[in-house]
């Protein structure tokens, strides 16, 4: 399947690179089924334990570079955050049994209900469906958020599955991701304020923040730049939570009953 391609490096050194080439396997159609069927047994069982919440967390691959090359605003780019949320909405609308999702920076977590039997709770199926729906939505909706910035190359997202058996565990998981959001955002906010408004180089800003606690960072922002961190946008400080809510649909006039449908709603809540 991989054909060696001879090529010559500068200096006359000969080497080979591999490139994929099309290859047709031939076999007797009579024996195909019985002889090869056994390979199915090599598939491992990755069924998620019953009664647990299934959490799928996606994270952008090498987004440090992706953000630089696509001119993301620092420290937070609302276009990028909006596109992440839009892609997460698409995942919630198109896939079954997700009850809540939480996102910040280049990551999003999706929580499946405990009783979900979607894809027989197979971890690989759940994770790959979430990752591919999210990635294709990210590309599909890119232009809606980045009107003047072309998408230069296809972004990717890694995924993992984690099971949480209790409500407490799940709440602590979401709190953990939100604490991560808070710590990073406070640091990034002070760091980029020192650079953008304080005229420090990135190395100087890094040195200035070495060993500082949260209170010190708040103080730098307040006393030197008149910024009250607690008044910074909630979406940056807390991340984005998507949950389902019943919303009234104003479609039928004079109906003897109210019409409700489920719709996912964006919240910037404090889980911790
Ligand atoms: P990975 O996940 O190991 O493949 O590597 P990265 O580079 O994706 O690292 P990660 O996920 O720990 O950090 C997320 C990166 O994404 C971080 O370097 C900053 C960047 N990023 C995310 N959102 C924004 C944003 O709104 N603005 C800017 N300037 N950068 C962002
Ligand atoms: Mg990443
Ligand atoms: Mg990340």
From TrEMBL:
<dbReference type="GO" id="GO:0008193">
    <property type="term" value="F:tRNA guanylyltransferase activity"/>
</dbReference>
<keyword id="KW-0479">Metal-binding</keyword>
<dbReference type="InterPro" id="IPR024956">
    <property type="entry name" value="tRNAHis_GuaTrfase_cat"/>
</dbReference>
<comment type="subunit">
    <text>Homotetramer. Interacts with MFN1 and MFN2; functions as a guanyl-nucleotide exchange factor/GEF for MFN2 and also probably MFN1.</text>
</comment>
<dbReference type="GO" id="GO:0005525">
    <property type="term" value="F:GTP binding"/>
</dbReference>
<dbReference type="GO" id="GO:0000287">
    <property type="term" value="F:magnesium ion binding"/>
</dbReference>
<feature type="domain" description="Thg1 C-terminal">
    <location>
        <begin position="168"/>
        <end position="249"/>
    </location>
</feature>
<keyword id="KW-0808">Transferase</keyword>
<feature type="binding site">
    <location>
        <position position="60"/>
    </location>
    <ligand>
        <name>Mg(2+) 1</name>
    </ligand>
</feature>
<keyword id="KW-0547">Nucleotide-binding</keyword>
<comment type="similarity">
    <text>Belongs to the tRNA(His) guanylyltransferase family.</text>
</comment>
<feature type="domain" description="tRNAHis guanylyltransferase catalytic">
    <location>
        <begin position="36"/>
        <end position="165"/>
    </location>
</feature>
<feature type="binding site">
    <location>
        <position position="59"/>
    </location>
    <ligand>
        <name>Mg(2+) 2</name>
    </ligand>
</feature>
<dbReference type="GO" id="GO:0006400">
    <property type="term" value="P:tRNA modification"/>
</dbReference>
<keyword id="KW-0460">Magnesium</keyword>
<keyword id="KW-0342">GTP-binding</keyword>
<dbReference type="Pfam" id="PF04446">
    <property type="entry name" value="Thg1"/>
</dbReference>
<dbReference type="InterPro" id="IPR007537">
    <property type="entry name" value="tRNAHis_GuaTrfase_Thg1"/>
</dbReference>
<keyword id="KW-0819">tRNA processing</keyword>
<feature type="binding site">
    <location>
        <position position="106"/>
    </location>
    <ligand>
        <name>Mg(2+) 2</name>
    </ligand>
</feature>
<dbReference type="Pfam" id="PF14413">
    <property type="entry name" value="Thg1C"/>
</dbReference>
<dbReference type="InterPro" id="IPR025845">
    <property type="entry name" value="Thg1_C_dom"/>
</dbReference>
<protein>
    <recommendedName>
        <fullName>tRNA(His) guanylyltransferase</fullName>
        <ecNumber>2.7.7.79</ecNumber>
    </recommendedName>
</protein>
<keyword id="KW-0548">Nucleotidyltransferase</keyword>
<comment type="function">
    <text>Adds a GMP to the 5'-end of tRNA(His) after transcription and RNase P cleavage. This step is essential for proper recognition of the tRNA and for the fidelity of protein synthesis. Also functions as a guanyl-nucleotide exchange factor/GEF for the MFN1 and MFN2 mitofusins thereby regulating mitochondrial fusion. By regulating both mitochondrial dynamics and bioenergetic function, it contributes to cell survival following oxidative stress.</text>
</comment>
<feature type="binding site">
    <location>
        <begin position="59"/>
        <end position="64"/>
    </location>
    <ligand>
        <name>GTP</name>
    </ligand>
</feature>
<feature type="binding site">
    <location>
        <begin position="105"/>
        <end position="106"/>
    </location>
    <ligand>
        <name>GTP</name>
    </ligand>
</feature>
<dbReference type="InterPro" id="IPR038469">
    <property type="entry name" value="tRNAHis_GuaTrfase_Thg1_sf"/>
</dbReference>
<feature type="binding site">
    <location>
        <position position="59"/>
    </location>
    <ligand>
        <name>Mg(2+) 1</name>
    </ligand>
</feature>
<feature type="binding site">
    <location>
        <position position="106"/>
    </location>
    <ligand>
        <name>Mg(2+) 1</name>
    </ligand>
</feature>
